[in-house]
Design brief:
Homodimer. Interacts with FtsZ. This protein is an alpha+beta fold. It has one domain. Helix content is about 65%, strand content about 15%. A two-stranded antiparallel ribbon has the order 1-2. α1 packs across α2. The longest helix has about 35 residues.
Length: about 90
Protein backbone atom coordinates (compact mmCIF):
# COMPACT_ATOMS: atom_id res chain seq x y z
CA UNK A 1 0.00 0.00 0.00
CA UNK A 2 1.16 3.51 -0.77
CA UNK A 3 2.26 5.81 2.04
CA UNK A 4 1.74 8.94 -0.05
CA UNK A 5 -0.35 11.65 1.56
CA UNK A 6 -3.75 11.94 -0.10
CA UNK A 7 -5.37 15.31 -0.60
CA UNK A 8 -9.12 15.78 -0.66
CA UNK A 9 -10.86 18.81 -2.15
CA UNK A 10 -14.31 19.71 -3.40
CA UNK A 11 -14.44 21.25 -6.86
CA UNK A 12 -17.18 22.49 -9.13
CA UNK A 13 -17.29 21.21 -12.68
CA UNK A 14 -20.07 22.27 -15.01
CA UNK A 15 -22.29 23.32 -12.11
CA UNK A 16 -21.86 20.11 -10.11
CA UNK A 17 -19.74 19.56 -7.00
CA UNK A 18 -17.29 16.68 -6.90
CA UNK A 19 -14.87 15.47 -4.26
CA UNK A 20 -11.44 14.81 -5.68
CA UNK A 21 -8.97 12.63 -3.78
CA UNK A 22 -5.41 12.15 -4.95
CA UNK A 23 -1.72 12.39 -4.20
CA UNK A 24 -1.31 15.44 -6.39
CA UNK A 25 -1.26 18.88 -4.79
CA UNK A 26 -4.57 20.61 -4.16
CA UNK A 27 -3.59 23.34 -6.60
CA UNK A 28 -2.93 20.71 -9.28
CA UNK A 29 -6.32 19.09 -8.68
CA UNK A 30 -8.05 22.49 -8.80
CA UNK A 31 -6.29 23.25 -12.10
CA UNK A 32 -7.42 19.93 -13.58
CA UNK A 33 -11.01 20.58 -12.47
CA UNK A 34 -10.90 24.11 -13.90
CA UNK A 35 -9.62 22.83 -17.26
CA UNK A 36 -12.33 20.15 -17.43
CA UNK A 37 -14.96 22.77 -16.58
CA UNK A 38 -13.62 25.11 -19.26
CA UNK A 39 -13.57 22.35 -21.88
CA UNK A 40 -17.12 21.29 -21.05
CA UNK A 41 -18.33 24.88 -21.34
CA UNK A 42 -16.52 25.32 -24.67
CA UNK A 43 -18.19 22.19 -26.05
CA UNK A 44 -21.60 23.39 -24.82
CA UNK A 45 -21.09 26.76 -26.53
CA UNK A 46 -20.23 25.04 -29.81
CA UNK A 47 -23.10 22.52 -29.49
CA UNK A 48 -25.90 24.09 -27.40
CA UNK A 49 -28.30 21.18 -27.92
CA UNK A 50 -26.05 18.56 -26.31
CA UNK A 51 -27.02 17.10 -22.95
CA UNK A 52 -24.67 16.69 -20.01
CA UNK A 53 -23.74 13.08 -20.81
CA UNK A 54 -22.75 13.88 -24.38
CA UNK A 55 -20.78 16.93 -23.24
CA UNK A 56 -18.96 14.77 -20.68
CA UNK A 57 -18.15 12.06 -23.24
CA UNK A 58 -16.90 14.58 -25.80
CA UNK A 59 -14.77 16.21 -23.11
CA UNK A 60 -13.27 12.82 -22.23
CA UNK A 61 -12.66 11.98 -25.90
CA UNK A 62 -10.89 15.31 -26.43
CA UNK A 63 -8.78 14.85 -23.29
CA UNK A 64 -7.72 11.32 -24.25
CA UNK A 65 -6.99 12.49 -27.80
CA UNK A 66 -4.69 15.19 -26.39
CA UNK A 67 -3.02 12.61 -24.14
CA UNK A 68 -2.42 10.16 -27.02
CA UNK A 69 -0.92 12.91 -29.18
CA UNK A 70 1.41 13.95 -26.36
CA UNK A 71 2.51 10.34 -25.78
CA UNK A 72 3.22 9.91 -29.49
CA UNK A 73 5.19 13.16 -29.55
CA UNK A 74 7.09 12.09 -26.44
CA UNK A 75 8.04 8.78 -28.07
CA UNK A 76 9.27 10.55 -31.20
CA UNK A 77 11.36 12.92 -29.10
CA UNK A 78 12.83 9.98 -27.17
CA UNK A 79 13.75 8.29 -30.45
CA UNK A 80 15.39 11.47 -31.73
CA UNK A 81 17.31 11.82 -28.48
CA UNK A 82 18.56 8.24 -28.70
CA UNK A 83 19.75 8.88 -32.28
CA UNK A 84 21.61 11.98 -31.15
CA UNK A 85 23.28 10.03 -28.32
CA UNK A 86 24.54 7.36 -30.74
Amino acid sequence: MSNEQKNRITVEIYGHHYTMIGTESKSHMRRVARLVDERMNEIKQLNPVLDLNKIAVLTAVNAVNDCVKLKEENELLKEELMKLKD
